[in-house]
Design goal:
This protein has 808 residues and is of the alpha+beta class. Helix content is 60%, strand content 8%. GO terms for molecular function: ATPase binding; proton-transporting ATPase activity, rotational mechanism.
Length: 808
């Protein structure tokens, strides 16, 4: 398994007997090394052979989603311990799912009816109680008033009294006004509007009495808990009654019959209470029965769901196969790695035996000029780094894979910007939590951000380890230096000096063995020193990585036998880049080694403006002036070297190929492919020299300008490293030390909390994200554009292991 280049792939044709086709595709899905090509792309999904089977699987998936919703409502979760039952096939499962769905729908319908009746009886009982109390209090109040009125009449004994009493006695009972009433419940939030509308609609010719129901009442129609009031409306006349009925319907007020007879009221309440007990018992029994059924479904749910997904994916794959003219075989074409040939053949033989087919599947390797898919065999450690590269573009088949180098260079460049071994330890401990519990997290459904962090846990771990390394080089632990590898090489100028950060320091012992000497921190020259160090280090790292990219372009050209790219692209690019910025890197190293005070800015500027002038104090070594003139001329020569010969040679090769003098495969050359991809037939395309020349001109200008801009782009390593260091120093000096200086416990606790929040929020979250994005840009733009085309397509085999959790 080689991660540098794609696994060798082959195009294979399978001729499968129709009786073993289903089992063959199923076994290939278990193996996961075969990518099928769609041989029926001109047909719509409904015109394909297995459209009905896919429709059946979709219907079964719908039933399973219905079961999952019911289990969620009941508080059940699918069991993960159910064993695969080999006896279950698609037809039996379809019948079983249909029966279970019908049972559940019937149970739900019965439960809804019973629950609705139960809620209506509850409301009816409340109406009987509240309205009964109202009528009882009204009747007792009326009786008391009548007794008072009779007592007053007997006490007065006036002349008019007998005449009035006699008049009342002789009044015709049929002419007395009789009031009707309607009782029920209305939602409390609508009660005021209900009362106002009743008053306006009847012009005040009604009497409304409301009573608040304590607690919540389950509404029979919606099944939701709401607050309600019991009401009784008294009216006179049929028209008023009709208006009240319509208003009740508009407000969703439930009406219930009520009688004034106290004996009948008691009898109805007794009947309603008995009926409620019966319904409660029936509902409880139904819920137990439904729960048992759902538990049975939950036990087999994962097995059934996996079976349906597998069958649906198998039929989708079978629809990509073409049927031969005899209607007895299916023809499949697809890509597979060469190393998996023996495994695929064994699987095909096993499928033939298990399906009792008398004819085996024919395995035939096809010769093709089509570009194969790219397949890198990754593991859980390298997959995240490969995803970083794939996000830019999938590697062309057999192209050098930047993912191999990204495993080291990406976390290292991140660490250069994030160098602090205290922050690195915090980042490492956070990542270690995900790595230790990765089995638990892998089996759970995580949120988007958590899933992203978990997927890149090994990338973050490498970033943290490299940050600890660079932090030890910078000698920073939350911006505090430590003498970890021995005492500082510098001491106070004399014994009487008290402030070594303002007075000068002198070297008193051997150089600090590893990293930056701790005495540099806190001095007036700390910032100029670290600026110079990190800026020059960024240029060295940038030039090294860009040279690595150009060297990889050589290995690509060598692998594809492209001598033109080696001679007229790789060589002049190496000369141009190293004549300028390779020379600058050499000057930096020489200056560090010799301790020279030469101004490198002056050297590089006047190398172009006045290459023949004497260097004076800026000369670092003997023969530097002559070397600069040679390198400058080499850089100038390399530009036309990149631009002119390649288009001319491509034109010559094209002419020789058509004259029959050369049988070289032109498609091996990258530029020829780019040029010829615009034309229809590969054997009759025309060579457009102007297009090729303009294309090469663009590439040349892009490289020349990019060499300058890309080198300057690596200075972000210096800028972000300096920003991270200064932010860490500010939080330590202006928050933690400032709080410590107050000698107050409360202020100290507040200061520590602010320091922790600032460190986590700004330095461990925002700065981590910022450094990650900048490292990503350096790899995608500055490194990969030197050699990486990224115009391939990914190998996507038919595999049951890749089935998504949610069915489409």
């Amino acid at each position: 398994m080689d991660l540098l280049r794609s696994e060798p792939m082959q195009l294979v044709q399978l001729i499968i007997p129709i009786e073993s086709a289903h089992r063959t595709v199923s076994y290939l899905g278990d193996l996961g090394f075969f990518q099928f090509k769609d041989l029926n792309s001109e047909k719509s999904p409904f015109q394909r052979t297995y459209a009905n089977q896919i429709k059946r699987c979709g219907e079964m998936a719908r039933k399973l989603r219905f079961f999952k919703d019911q289990m969620t409502k009941a508080g059940l979760s699918p069991s993960t311990r159910s064993m695969m039952d080999d006896d279950v096939d698609l037809d039996n499962l379809e019948v079983k799912l249909g029966e279970l769905e019908a049972d559940l729908i019937e149970m739900n319908g019965n439960q809804e009816k019973l629950q609705r009746s139960y809620n209506e009886l509850i409301e009816y009982k409340l109406v009987l109680q509240k309205a009964g109390e109202f009528f009882q209090s009204a009747q007792s109040s009326a009786a008391a008033k009548q007794r008072e009125a009779e007592a007053e009449l007997r006490g007065e004994g006036s002349i008019d009294s007998p005449l009035l009493l006699e008049q009342e006695m002789v009044t015709d009972p049929s002419k007395q006004v009789k009031l009707g009433f309607i009782s029920g419940l209305v939602t409390r939030e609508k009660s005021l509007a209900f009362e106002r509308i009743l008053f306006r609609a009847t012009r005040g010719n009604v009497f409304l009495k409301q009573s608040v129901v304590e607690g919540h009442v389950i509404d029979p129609a919606s099944g939701e808990k709401v607050e309600k009031n019991v009401f009784v409306v008294f009216y006179s006349g049929e028209r008023a009654r009709n208006k009240i009925m319509k208003i009740c319907e508009a407000f969703g007020a439930n009406r219930y019959p009520f009688t004034e007879d106290l004996g009948k009221q008691f009898q109805i309440i007794t009947e309603v209470s008995g009926r409620l007990e019966e319904l409660k018992t029936t509902i409880d029994i139904g819920l137990v029965h439904q729960s048992n059924l759902l538990q049975t479904i939950a036990y087999h749910f994962e097995q059934w769901s996996l079976l349906v997904k597998k069958e649906k994916s198998i039929f989708h794959t079978l629809n990509m196969l073409s049927i031969d003219v005899t209607q007895s075989c299916l023809v499949a074409e697809g890509w597979c790695p060469i190393f998996a040939t023996k495994q695929i053949q064994n699987v095909l033989q096993k499928a033939t035996i298990d399906s009792s087919s008398q004819v085996g599947t024919i395995f035939h390797v096809l010769q093709t000029k089509e570009s194969p898919p790219t397949y890198f065999h990754t593991n859980k450690f390298t997959s995240a780094f490969q995803e970083i590269v794939d996000a830019y573009g999938i590697a062309k088949y057999q192209e050098a894979n930047p993912g191999v180098f990204t495993v080291v260079t990406f976390p290292f460049l991140f660490a250069v910007m994030f160098g602090d071994w205290g922050h690195g330890i915090c980042l490492f401990l956070a990542t270690l939590y995900f790595i230790i519990r990765e089995k638990k997290f892998a089996s759970q459904k995580l949120g988007d951000i958590t899933q992203m962090i978990f997927g890149g846990r090994y990338v973050i771990m490498m970033m943290a380890l490299f940050s600890i390394y660079t932090g030890l080089i910078y000698n920073e632990f939350f911006s505090v230096p430590f003498e970890l590898f021995g005492p500082s090489a510098y001491g106070c100028r004399d014994r009487s000096c008290s402030d070594a950060s303002t007075e000068g320091l002198v070297k008193v012992r051997a150089t600090y063995p590893f990293g930056v000497d701790p005495k540099w921190h806190g001095t007036r020259s700390e910032l100029p020193f670290l600026n110079s160090l990190k800026m020059k280090m960024s240029i060295l790292l940038g030039v090294a990585q860009m040279n690595l990219g150009i060297i990889l372009s050589y290995f690509n050209a060598k692998f594809f036998d492209n001598d033109i790219n080696i001679r007229y692209q790789f060589v002049p690019q190496m000369i141009f880049l190293n004549s300028l910025f390779g020379y600058l890197s050499l000057l930096i190293v020489v200056k560090w080694c010799t301790g020279s005070q030469a101004d490198l800015y002056h050297v590089m500027i006047y190398m172009f403006l006045s290459p023949t002038d004497d260097l004076g104090d800026n000369q670092l070594f003997f023969g530097q002036k002559f070397l600069q003139i040679v390198l400058l001329l080499a850089a100038l020569v390399s530009v036309p070297w990149m631009l002119i010969p390649k288009p001319l040679l491509l034109k010559k090769q094209h002419e020789e190929r058509h004259r029959g003098q050369s049988y070289a495969l032109l498609h091996n050359f990258d530029d020829a492919v780019e040029m010829e991809s615009h034309h229809g037939s590969e054997s009759h395309e025309e060579f457009e020299f102007s297009e090729v020349f303009v294309h090469q001109l663009i590439h040349t200008i892009e490289f020349v300008l990019g060499a300058v801009s890309n080198t300057a782009s690596y200075l972000r390593l210096w800028a972000l490293s300096l920003a991270h260091s200064e932010l860490s120093s500010v939080f330590y000096d202006k928050v933690l030390l400032l709080a410590w200086g107050f000698n107050n416990t409360i202020i100290l606790i507040i200061g520590i909390l602010v320091f922790i929040c600032a460190t986590v929020g700004v330095l461990l979250v925002m700065e981590t994200l910022s450094a990650f994005l900048h490292a990503l840009r350096l790899h995608w733009v500055e490194f990969q554009n030197k050699f990486y085309e990224g115009d391939g397509y990914k190998f996507q085999p038919f595999s049951f292991a890749l089935l998504s959790e949610e069915d489409d």
